């Protein structure tokens, strides 16, 4: 029954986030209550509908109360410093909770500044979204932050005032713990790793060690979860039983210790889940029902999602529950295949492999790559965690230098750091996206279903059906649907086209965007080779990302009217760069380099205009026909998009690629007025993020954006 309720709640939350219809939620609630009253034999279905409705209504309630900041403009913000996140070479990153303006009170802002001290800050700066570029692959990162109340970033803001504040009791306790670690483990990487492993505080980790932790797939060990709570609970129970306390008293006191630890470390979805599961486990143990771990997990998930349905969009929450479910359900079955190992190692190996099956596709989906060292790194470090965490806790709790007591911690931690750094220098990473990543998800899911108890025959059928369906969907989208992504590269241009199974890229943004926006987006979409790369003109905001692109993606042909990528392809009149894809050029000697931009057309669907201005528009005007979508020239400058040119194009949709709060003040209001007069729906990458346009085989066109709207 619990699983029916949880399934309904999860689907309701997803539906509420996508649709947000209160009326529909009330309809499901009424139907569920009616079934519950009339159909006693259909109680699971009735409860499913009731919790489906609850999920939709609670999610709608939460979504309506999310913060709606205005990005891009200069603003003044008063914040109370929360915690230091990490220290770079010349900056410190920390979180502040907003006190003013009133409409953002309670929200969290990430600040990059020269220094950090506990206090009340008044800062002036430009607030930017919580992710720098709104492109494919960044959606879950963005939702996780926004739904947790982290509304944006202030980079190097001006400090208008600062009022130092005294530390709270909890902050003093954390400071004392860190000082004890430094004294007992002699500071350096040992202290940084001990602090991260026991409290989740990564502010002391050096850049190389931090990168190695995540490159080698053991980053989950720094996210406080069931492993940490289990170790602490085992240590406390062992100590209390040795003191002669009864099982009941020992269990209750140990759980109090876990609660104190959760308050000390600070709550997170994975830690809250672990604490609730430990409460269930202790209760089940005392009642002699310790084999009901799955029921405990279901009730924990139900309770947490009823409290905050938006936790479903936190990947730490999802990973934590998936990994726990699979370990509870499938560890025993996998152990049978590891019978050649000694019994103590068998359990650890089975759990580690199961977690990696969950983590592999999810890690690639979220971060673009995963390390092949991950199973080895986890098999080595996970068995050491009780010793690492136990000695580290001891070193942090006992004041002063206690010498030989924590000497093992020092060498274990330094050895672990060196081991991770060694693996990190040769990461052996796998990086896939698009169809390949989808197939990995399906394959991983099929294996996990088998280990969770599904018969071999049903697993093969389910896996085969899933692989075929995934392949069919991707094949249809790649070959029958023409899709254009107007990527968010800040103040620049980069447009990706998929047409009849091939990829074409027009421009590649500036240097920073090429590395941090373009390449990650291409990797996520599974773009390994470009049929054509078209560079409209040699300005940095259009070709700056070329080197990063060529280092990561194979390019069959480069089209430009200037030397690019070691080649020069001079397009004098027109060239075909793929099915329905034409490049237009002229060989006139115009004073303005923008007016030499190549024009790219995709049938009668899309016209891409580079940065042409008035002179360029006059040159190309005799060739212009109506197009459904126009990429507005020169980021919406007033020197482009004349009424005469727009009258020839007659666009239904106009896309402006520009950076948020750019120093040029683009797009210009005159251009926006001209587009409105032409009847075009305007989409701006600074407001909407990546704009995706799909042209369906039956003639319809759909527009979706990263930020919605």
Structure description:
By secondary structure, the protein is of the alpha/beta class. Helix content is 50%, strand content 17%. It contains 25 helices and 24 strands. A 7-stranded mixed sheet has the order 15-13-11-10-9-23-24, with helices on one face. It has a 7-stranded mixed sheet with strand order 16-17-18-19-20-21-22. A 5-stranded mixed β-barrel has the order 1-2-3-5-4. The longest helix has 25 residues, at 343-367. The mean pLDDT is 88.
Overall mean pLDDT score? 88
- Major β-sheet, in short? 7 strands, mixed
Helix segment tally:
25
* Percent of residues in helices: 40-55%
Q: What percentage of the residues does DSSP assign to strands (E)?
A: 15-25%
CATH topology of one domain: Metallo-beta-lactamase, Chain A
User: What is the C-alpha radius of gyration, as a whole number of Å?
Assistant: 28 Å
Major sheet: arrangement of strands: 15-13-11-10-9-23-24
Q: Which stretches of 5+ consecutive residues score pLDDT under 50? A: none
Task: Indicate the topology.
Elements: H1 2-18, H2 22-38, H3 43-64, E1 74-87, E2 92-100, E3 108-113, E4 119-128, H4 139-147, E5 150-155, E6 158-164, H5 169-185, H6 188-199, H7 207-215, H8 226-242, H9 247-265, H10 269-286, H11 293-307, H12 315-336, H13 343-367, E7 370-371, H14 374-381, H15 385-397, H16 407-425, E8 429-430, H17 434-451, H18 456-480, E9 482-486, E10 495-499, E11 502-506, H19 511-525, E12 529-530, E13 532-534, H20 540-543, H21 546-552, E14 554-555, E15 558-559, E16 574-578, E17 581-584, E18 599-602, E19 606-608, H22 614-620, E20 629-631, H23 643-649, E21 653-656, H24 669-677, E22 681-684, H25 685-688, E23 691-695, E24 701-705
Parallel strand pairs: 3-5, 11-13, 12-14, 13-15, 19-20, 20-21, 21-22
Antiparallel strand pairs: 1-2, 1-4, 2-3, 4-5, 4-6, 7-8, 9-10, 9-23, 10-11, 16-17, 17-18, 18-19, 23-24
């Amino acid at each position: 029954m619990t699983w029916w309720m949880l399934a309904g709640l999860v689907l309701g939350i997803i539906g509420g986030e996508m649709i947000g219809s209160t009326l529909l939620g009330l309809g499901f609630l009424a139907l569920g209550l009616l079934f519950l009253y009339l159909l006693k034999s259909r109680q699971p279905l009735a409860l499913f509908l009731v919790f489906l409705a609850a999920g939709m209504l609670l999610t709608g309630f939460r979504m309506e109360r999310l913060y709606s900041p205005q990005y891009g403009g200069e603003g003044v913000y008063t914040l109370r410093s929360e915690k230091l996140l990490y220290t770079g070479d010349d900056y410190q990153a920390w979180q502040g909770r907003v006190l003013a303006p009133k409409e953002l009170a309670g929200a969290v802002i990430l600040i990059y500044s020269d220094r950090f001290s506990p206090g009340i800050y008044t800062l002036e700066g430009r607030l930017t979204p919580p992710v720098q570029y709104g492109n494919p692959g960044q959606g879950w990162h963005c939702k996780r932050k926004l739904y947790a109340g982290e509304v944006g970033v202030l980079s190097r803001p001006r400090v208008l005032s600062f009022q130092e504040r005294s530390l709270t009791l909890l902050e003093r306790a954390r400071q004392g713990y860190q000082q004890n670690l430094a004294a007992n483990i002699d500071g350096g990487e040992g202290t940084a790793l001990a602090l991260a492993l026991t409290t989740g505080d990564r502010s002391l980790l050096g850049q190389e060690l931090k990168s190695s932790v995540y490159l080698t797939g053991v980053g989950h060990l720094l996210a406080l979860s069931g492993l940490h709570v289990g170790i602490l609970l085992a240590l406390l129970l062992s100590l209390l039983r040795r003191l002669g306390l009864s099982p009941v008293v020992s269990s209750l006191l140990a759980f109090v210790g876990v609660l104190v630890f959760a308050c000390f470390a600070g709550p997170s979805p994975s830690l809250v889940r672990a604490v609730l599961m430990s409460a269930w486990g202790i209760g089940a143990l005392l009642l002699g029902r310790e084999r009901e771990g799955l029921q405990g997990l279901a009730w924990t998930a139900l309770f947490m999602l009823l409290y905050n349905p938006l936790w479903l969009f936190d990947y730490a929450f999802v990973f934590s529950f998936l990994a726990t479910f699979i370990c509870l359900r499938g560890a025993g079955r996998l152990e049978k295949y590891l019978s050649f190992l000694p019994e103590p190692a068998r359990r650890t190996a089975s759990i580690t492999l199961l977690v990696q099956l969950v983590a592999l596709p999810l890690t690639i989906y979220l971060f673009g790559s995963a390390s092949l060292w991950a199973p080895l790194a986890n098999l080595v470090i996970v068995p050491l965690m009780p010793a690492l965490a136990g000695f580290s806790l001891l070193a942090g709790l006992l004041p002063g230098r206690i010498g030989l007591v924590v000497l093992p911690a020092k060498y274990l931690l330094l050895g672990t750091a060196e081991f991770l750094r060694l693996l990190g220098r040769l990461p052996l990473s796998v990086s896939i996206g698009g169809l390949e990543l989808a197939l990995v998800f399906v394959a991983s899911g099929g294996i996990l279903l088998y280990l969770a108890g599904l018969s071999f025959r049903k697993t093969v059928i389910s896996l085969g059906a899933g692989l075929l369906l995934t392949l069919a969907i991707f094949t249809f989208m790649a070959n029958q649907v023409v899709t254009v992504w107007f990527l968010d590269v800040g103040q620049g241009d980069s447009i990706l086209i998929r047409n009849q199974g091939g990829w074409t890229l027009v421009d590649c943004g500036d240097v920073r965007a090429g590395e941090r926006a373009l390449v990650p987006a291409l990797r996520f979409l599974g773009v390994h080779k470009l049929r054509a790369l078209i560079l409209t003109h040699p300005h940095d905001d259009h070709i700056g990302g070329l080197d990063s692109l060529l280092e990561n993606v194979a390019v069959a042909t480069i089209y430009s009217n200037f030397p690019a990528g070691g080649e020069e392809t001079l397009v004098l009149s027109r060239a075909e760069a793929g099915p329905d894809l034409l490049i237009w050029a002229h060989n006139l000697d115009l004073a303005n380099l923008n007016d030499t931009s190549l024009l790219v057309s995709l049938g009668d669907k899309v016209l891409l205009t580079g940065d042409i201005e008035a002179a360029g528009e006059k040159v190309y005007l005799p060739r212009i026909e109506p197009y459904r979508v126009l990429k507005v020239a020169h980021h919406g400058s007033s020197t482009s998009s004349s009424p005469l040119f727009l009258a020839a194009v007659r666009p239904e949709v106009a896309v402006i690629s520009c950076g948020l709060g750019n120093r040029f003040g683009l797009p210009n209001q005159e251009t926006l007025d001209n587009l409105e007069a032409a009847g075009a729906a305007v989409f701006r990458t600074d407001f909407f993020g990546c704009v995706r346009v799909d042209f369906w085989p039956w003639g319809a066109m759909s527009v979706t954006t990263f930020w919605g709207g």
